[in-house]
Design goal:
Number of domains: 1
Structural class: mainly alpha
Number of helices: 4
Distance between the termini: 29 Å
Radius of gyration: 17 Å
Strand content: 5-15%
Largest sheet: 2 strands, antiparallel
Length: 106
Amino acid sequence: MAKALGPKNKVMILLNHGPLTGGETIGEAFMLMYAVTRACEYQQMALAAVGGDLSKINIPTPSQIDGMVKRATMNPVKMEVNQADLMFEAFRREMEDKYGAENIYR
């Protein structure tokens, strides 16, 4: 697993176990896990909507995928803060407020 993951490959899906993510920070690993989990949920809903028939799902062409990747990786505004870490901290605070820090960190 260590050889398959690294600075470029940060997500691995383990057969019969689920996703594994890594990152330079806990926030980055969390953000990747959140994104992979949501993608899996959407895929499951799409398959359920068409009764499991993949031919009824509109799969993007390679050029459409390239366009989506280009738009997703554009960074017109340089942020001085790490957005992944901010997202992690926001979710951490939400869980502490909801369940109480004393019930989470044991």
